[in-house]
């Protein structure tokens, strides 16, 4: 049953369906270009994902057949008309970096479902997610250098680590557009699907993740993030510290029982 938590803004809607949260950037008249109101809503959504035990996975998508056309510098410089959003802007430190997934990324896996344009800040959001489903007609690209700007969302650091130096410099330095198929070949996205089906395909992926043990899933994500730049010997120590409690959890016992009894496991995150 779909419900709407008491968060979000006019430019960012948040819905929860079981263990899955769907976050929608909602400025279709501007190709979902980033505004202060949208970034506040996104920042709240990521915090909600991390803080809500029942949530196991999130999906980020855009309204109106578009993902995100990057930053709307004019809109980001204006105070939202809604006083409640103004209050939240003041209350959330660095809400813009949190919303953009530069800081404060959710502790649960986040999938992006991309239709249409996902350029500049849109691609930076994509790079901040964990799994990426992209419609075949989508357009990606980091346009900042072409406009004399800099990708402040973290792509100058993250992209070479994700897709290799040569591919990353190609995107960052030429500031050119990239098709969905080229992004797939680069390893920038996980799956290319027919236009109009990205959200449905992302939901299938989310349901597969949500059916797994939540402690195990979150531990894998945490281990990668905490050990990405360490030598293997040091990384394995941290991996053991994170992994052994999962091995001894009630979820692990339930997983073994379900396997023996040939039934789906019912995990409780304990």
From TrEMBL:
<dbReference type="GO" id="GO:0003824">
    <property type="term" value="F:catalytic activity"/>
</dbReference>
<dbReference type="InterPro" id="IPR001753">
    <property type="entry name" value="Enoyl-CoA_hydra/iso"/>
</dbReference>
<protein>
    <submittedName>
        <fullName>Crotonase/enoyl-CoA hydratase family protein</fullName>
    </submittedName>
</protein>
<feature type="region of interest" description="Disordered">
    <location>
        <begin position="251"/>
        <end position="270"/>
    </location>
</feature>
<dbReference type="Pfam" id="PF00378">
    <property type="entry name" value="ECH_1"/>
</dbReference>
<dbReference type="InterPro" id="IPR029045">
    <property type="entry name" value="ClpP/crotonase-like_dom_sf"/>
</dbReference>
<dbReference type="InterPro" id="IPR014748">
    <property type="entry name" value="Enoyl-CoA_hydra_C"/>
</dbReference>
<comment type="similarity">
    <text>Belongs to the enoyl-CoA hydratase/isomerase family.</text>
</comment>
């Amino acid at each position: 049953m779909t419900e709407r938590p008491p968060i979000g803004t006019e430019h960012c809607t948040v819905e929860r369906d079981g263990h899955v949260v769907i976050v929608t950037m909602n400025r279709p008249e501007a190709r979902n270009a980033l505004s202060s109101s949208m970034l506040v809503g996104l920042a709240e959504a990521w915090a909600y994902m991390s803080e809500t035990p029942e949530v196991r996975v999130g999906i980020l998508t855009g309204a109106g057949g578009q993902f995100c056309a990057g930053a709307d510098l004019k809109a980001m410089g204006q105070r939202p008309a809604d006083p409640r959003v103004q209050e939240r802007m003041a209350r959330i430190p660095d809400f813009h970096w949190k919303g953009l997934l530069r800081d404060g990324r959710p502790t649960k896996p986040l999938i992006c479902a991309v239709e249409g344009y996902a350029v500049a800040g849109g691609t930076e959001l994509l790079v901040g997610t964990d799994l990426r489903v992209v419609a075949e007609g989508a357009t990606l690209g980091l346009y900042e250098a072409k406009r004399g700007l800099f990708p402040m969302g973290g792509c100058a650091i993250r992209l070479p680590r994700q897709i290799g130096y040569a591919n990353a410099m190609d995107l960052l330095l030429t500031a050119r557009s990239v098709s969905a198929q080229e992004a797939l070949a680069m390893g920038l996205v996980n799956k290319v699907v027919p236009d109009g089906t990205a959200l449905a395909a992302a939901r299938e992926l989310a349901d597969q993740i949500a059916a797994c043990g939540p402690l195990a899933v979150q531990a894998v994500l945490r281990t990668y993030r905490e050990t990405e730049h360490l030598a293997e010997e040091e990384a394995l120590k941290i991996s053991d510290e994170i992994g052994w409690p999962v091995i001894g959890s009630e979820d692990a016992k339930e997983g073994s029982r379900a396997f023996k009894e040939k039934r789906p496991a019912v995990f409780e995150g304990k």
